[in-house]
Amino acid sequence: MFSVMRLKKLPEHAALSLNDLNEYLKFAVIQATFGILTRTRCQLQGNAVGETIQHRNDLSGSALFRVKHDLVKSREKRVIDGPVVSNKTVQDHHKYYTLELYHDGQHLWSDLRGKAGSVHDEYLSSTKLAVKNVKLSFEFPYYGHMVTNATLTTGGFINLGTSKNRQIANFQFVAPLMAYFNPSLTRTSTVHYFDSGNEFIVQWSNVFLHDNPQAGSFTFQCMLNKTGEIVFSYHKIPIPVVNISSVEHTVNIGISDAYYVDKLKHYYGIWQIFRTFYAYDAVHINKNWVVNNTAVILRPKKNCISARTCGDCTERRQSTEFHCTWCNKLKRCSDGFDRYHSEWLTSGCNMSGVFQLEKCVIQSKQQEEEPTLGLAPWLIAVICVCAVVVFGLVAWLVYAFTHPTSRSGLCLIQHGPGSCYRKAPEKYQERGPTNSSVFNKVLF
């Protein structure tokens, strides 16, 4: 617990005065303090070292014990793999969210068991590795994107992906405690959810780990607020989260969003599409923070995607750390790195984006003048082709009626307009090569 390093050995049966003993104990305390600071590379909490120096002149027989107690108490408070959880709020700033940790977060806990209006999902409460899609009654801003669908899971997380692709859905999640939970192990395990119109809450109650049920039951919940705020509340965490095995299932706490990029490559003689997923600004919460009665709040920050006009987009570029750009073609503001990254590149927004307010005004004037300039070029071409076809048909009918003895006139009199086209004899019909074939294959 406490050791004195490199101290001179006192001679046996030596006669020491009180001043000599005080000097000796002072040297011992300073040496021990320096040894702990050097070994742990941590700063002692409080005034343990200062108190030691202040009491150097009045050390008594119990002084060394008091100093030992202060040093051990300070050592127990040191940081181990992250900030120490205290009653004070711990803040952590990210690009899209600000994170706040509350050690005493009982006021943020709202038990859904027995709560009026809450839904006890029988399927999720009795099945392992199960999911269920739920429609939200409000639009939830997630990384700036408005989300109305949520996929609940038995694994302690919610999926908020808009894509039906299961691969990217694994990167778009809100996870109060993602682990291999199996509600089917006991009848007391339940999954509830509640939608009040302003907030959506999901609660996992008395759920056990599939590969370690002896660890005990977990009870926690996740709340999505209409304002974009996310709250993780932990009622019962029987073991440290760092001790949960991730061999069969990922263990994670936090939020994530992602986009993908497709590239066509020639691989082993075949053209194939390679899809690469990119998770941007994921928030991973320290696992040592999560204990009984703690709570974590994720508050959204201003971003590009929530801007709805070109002017707002340029303002976000100046007031935030995002490099916001307005794409007039998509009517969207972005820095190019969000879940619609592929659409941003396909539309050429990375080349034609506007990020200056002066250009926003010029662009808006051009849009007002566009309706007076006439139709689009492709529409004019289609109208011209249709006009030529109609004019040719009318000219042929006029010629046939005015020249009844001509081939067109006789055909029109005898058979009508629909039968004047006669197929060529079969022996003159074109034939394709017998060994030709069409090979279409979509690779992914």
UniProtKB/TrEMBL annotation:
Coiled coil feature spans: none
Keywords, sorted A to Z: Membrane, Signal, Transmembrane, Transmembrane helix
Positions of transmembrane segments: 375-399
Gene Ontology CC, one term: membrane
Subcellular location: Membrane
Topology of the protein relative to the lipid bilayer: Single-pass type I membrane protein
Domain of life: Eukaryota
Main subcellular location of this protein, as a coarse class: membrane
InterPro entries recorded: PLXDC
Name this polypeptide is given: Plexin domain-containing protein 1
